[in-house]
Amino acid sequence: MLTKKEAHIIQYLNQNKERFVTSRELAGELNCSDRTIRNYFKSISDKLPHHKAVEIISKQGNGYQLHITDEKVFDDFLKDNHIGGRQIDYLGQSDINDRYNYILNKLLFEQNEIYFDDLADEMFVSRSTLSADFKKIRKRFQTYHLKIESKANKGVFVTGTEQNKRRFIIDHFIDTGFMTVMHSYVSSDLLKITISFEELTLIVIDECREGCLKLSDFVIQNLVIHIALALRRVMEGFEISQIEEHINLQSVPERAVAARILNRITLATGINFPVDEIDYITLHLISKGRGERGVPVDQAYKNRLRQELVLALDDVTQSADVKNDFQLLEGLLDHLMTLKIRLESRINLENPLSEDVLNDYSDMYALAQRLLMKMPSFSSYSLTVDENAYIALHFMAARERYKEEHKFNILVICATGYGSAQMLKSRIQNELGSLVHVVDVIGYYDITDEKLQGIDFIMSSIDLSNLIFNIPVYTVSVFLTEVELQKIRHNISHLAQKGASSENSIDVSPAEDYFEDYFSEDSILFLSEESKESVVDKLLNAMANDEDVSYIDDMKAMIARREQLSSVVFSETIAVPHPIKALSTHHRIGVAIVKDGVSWSPEFSKIHFVFLTSMSVYDNEGLPELASMIVDLIERKDIQEEMLNCQDYKEFKRLFLKIKKER
Fold first, then answer.
1. What is the pLDDT, as a whole number, of residue 264?
2. Sheet of 473-475, strands arranged across
3. pLDDT tens digits for 100-126?
4. What gap in Å lies between CA 395 and CA 402, rounded to an integer?
């Protein structure tokens, strides 16, 4: 599986396959160094199909060129790596966050020396990119009175008091959503424990740092979950299996840290742990950097296990989110390292949440089973339900993170006072908080292109049926009733399945019934070379019919006012001009199909389809449904191509209704 940046290189080479592309050009495209590009090509060459169907030709002085001898194999390769026509977000926010967290983990948890150039090579980024990351980290450290320093023989390191380092680490866990995710899928209420995850995390961090154990954040997270589950095991009377006698943990320094951790938890909860639980905690602590007899872990084995895990994840799930989830990968890897020690030592660990996982998250449990069966290191073992359930917890946590990351961004529009607006916002957050993120609450006249940027849909306490947007608009009351909530949830489920631009209405009445009511043969114009003004004039003249004599001038003024709010251009080929308020006695939509394109604005010089909408002052039933079909037309390049070649009303109607039938 290619990384995002590797995929971007393949995409760029494919788009320019008729020529050689220099490493400098690619470095500029990916914002990295020439040397980094060469490192990427070494990695890519190992991942290309190995029967010469696809190869990258390298020619000194010219650069790189993609050579394809089997288009079908290459197409399959593109699909498998999620490479399409769109620009790949190779420097997306998730990549940047992963890099930022990776550097923090190195600085605060690992005890190895960190050198700037080595880190740049390891992460496949340029020195300038890494410098920008460190600048961001330095700025955040300032609040905690921490500094990043470097020395020739020591590399890069953090200076400051131990107390401030611990304070930063705790806040870092909270900021990265670790606590939120834990509470959402394995809450302290479900576990019925009397101590919070925050307090458990603080105890673990305190004692590990006091004992000079520098563990990764993934080890700490796994350890906190293990302790929380151990608390419930003890409370419910589960018997804890003894560690095999041949494993001598008495003399390792990690055991003293484990004992102090459990002692502090006993003081906080009043629950006494069996002595054997100290050994279980010790196993977690030594799995990071030591073997069971204090011998360093074989790094080659850990790398092999990581490779097995990546291949297994790629095999058992089709989700790009899962396969590219750095946090899931590292968390699972740490857990599997500890699991391997337990299996080799014949240690059985009971999981008090096994029944809950099997009953309520059977899909995650099945995924865990398939994953372990695909990994050679574990396929020969007969794993218990309890162990599989532990693995399932990692997938459950990942799913909750994706929900949090993939919330719909919404804009709330309210005409009433500040108090009412905040009431509506509060109701939305309380009832739909797991699905949506309220970006802003604004008034009707504050709608602008800037405010609509990145918004998935609008919730409004004002009737906006006289305005058309290329995103869904849901009208609700300030009190957000249960009936309204049901409709919103129903529509959000459709948005999640089909994309935010595919549904624009709660109403799903038959489109054909409304078509004849809005469109007419007289107002479907087939034009060749026109200006924006002439297109609007011709459409308004065709639509005026029995309207007042001032209709055309009033419409022009109201269309201009509407365009001042936000753009009426929905794509590079489609514009939907309409007045800011209803003026007509009867609703209608005029259509201009401009074969050579019309310049609508400096940014949009080739608009081929103009849908001029005139709303009625009396009734506009069916308009949201027709508007949603215009939005769907954006993605239907095939239908657009046919429409450009059609020359009569009957053919236009067939093609327009085809959007509804096939979406």
1. 92
2. 436-442, 408-413, 457-460, 473-475
3. 777 887 787 665 678 887 777 666 667
4. 11
**176, 101 Cβ separation under 8 angstroms:** yes
Owner of token pair 């005026």: 544
Take residue 106 and report the two structure tokens written for it. 């190195």
The DSSP bridge pattern shows strands 588-598 and 524-527 to be parallel
Whether the CB-CB separation of 28 and 13 falls below 8 Å is answered with: no
Angle, to 10 degrees, between the axis of helix 253-269 and the axis of helix 217-235? Answer: 50
Kindly tell me the burial class for residue 543, based on how many C-beta atoms sit within 10 Å of its own C-beta (0-12, 13-18, 19 or more).
buried
Helix 116-123 vs helix 93-108: crossing angle, to nearest 10: 140
- Yes or no: say if 550 and 569 are a contact pair by the CB < 8 Å rule: no
Q: DSSP labels for 194-207?
A: SS-HHHHHHHHHHH
Check if the beta carbon of residue 532 is closer than 8 Å to that of residue 598: yes
Cβ neighbours of residue 227 closer than 8 Å, sequence gap 6 or more: 200, 204, 261, 262, 265, 281
Residue 62: strand, helix, or coil: coil
Using alpha carbons, list the distances in angstroms from residue 100 to 94, 95, 129, 136, 138. 10, 9, 11, 9, 11
Per DSSP, the residues of 460-511 read ESS--TTS--SS-EEE--TT--HHHHHHHHHHHHHHHHH-TTS---S----H
What is the token pair recorded at 532?
């924006």
Closest by Cα among 388, 406, 258 to 332? 388
Interatomic CA distance for residues 166 and 172, integer angstroms: 10
Asked whether the beta carbons of 583 and 558 are under 8 A apart, the reply is yes
Domains of the chain: 4-91 (1.10.10.10), 161-400 (no CATH), 407-498 (3.40.50.2300), 511-662 (3.40.930.10)
> Which residue in this structure is represented by tokens 């959503």?
177
Q: In the numeric block, which tokens belong to residue 43? A: 């990695």
Q: pLDDT tens across 353-394, in order? A: 788 888 888 888 999 999 999 999 998 888 889 889 888 888
- The answer to whether the CB of 652 falls within 8 A of the CB of 646 is yes
Strand partners for 475: 460
Q: Is 352 strand, coil or helix?
A: coil
Q: What Rg, from alpha-carbon coordinates, does the chain have?
A: 30
Using N-to-C axis directions, what is the helix angle for 385-405 and 362-374, rounded to 10°? Answer: 110
**pLDDT on residue 524:** 94
**pTM of model > 0.90:** no
Write down the mean pLDDT value for the chain.
Answer: 77
At 543-586, the pLDDT tens digits run: 987 777 788 999 999 999 888 888 888 888 999 999 988 888 88
Structure tokens, 608: 């081929």
Report the C-alpha gap between 285 and 276 in whole angstroms: 15
- E-strand ranges in 131-192 read 147-151, 155-159
Q: Which of 255, 226, 254, 233 minimizes the C-alpha distance to 331?
A: 226
Token look-up 């005029």 returns 590
Question: In the numeric block, which tokens belong to residue 246?
Answer: 């041949």
Contact present, 282 and 260 (Cβ < 8 Å): no
d(CA 381, CA 372): 9
Question: Do 317 and 323 contact (CB within 8 A), yes or no?
Answer: yes
According to DSSP, the β-strands at 473-475 and 574-575 are: unpaired
Dig out the tokens for 140 from the structure: 């955040």
> Which residues are 589's β-sheet partners?
613
Q: Is the dihedral of CA 203, 368, 308, 322 positive or negative?
A: negative
How many other C-beta atoms are found inside a 10 Å radius of the C-beta of residue 15?
Answer: 12
Instruction: Provide the residue type at 516 as one letter.
Output: E
